[in-house]
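Table S4 entry, TIGR04086 family membrane protein.
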Amino acid sequence: MSSTKRLGVAVLFGLGTLLALAALTSLIIAMLLKMTELDEANLAITIMILAIISMIIAGFISGLKAKVRGWFAGGATGVAYSVLVFLFNYLGHSQGLSGENMLYQLGLIAASMIGGIFGVNSAKKE
């Protein structure tokens, strides 16, 4: 398989993993908010930590699948997710990208890149 095709497949696997993890964590957070006395302000740091962990896992899967250039595979996965989040916010909520949001997304992309580096280093060499 060519390196470009392998990288594309790796990014899709990472993005699929990330979307599944995002759906799962959103469901858990929604259930916590509905069934307990907690409010969103109390869970803000927890949500951020879960997002970072999800990005690291998705980057790891991307790096594992890519087998080369894990930082690039993880970064591409993070950028693809950030673009999806931006489109959702812009088209669905008419919100642009603020400075705080941009820093948050850059941090998530960095976490995904770190996961990709770990994924490549743990992949078996052919």
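Residues 3-35 form the longest helix (33 residues).
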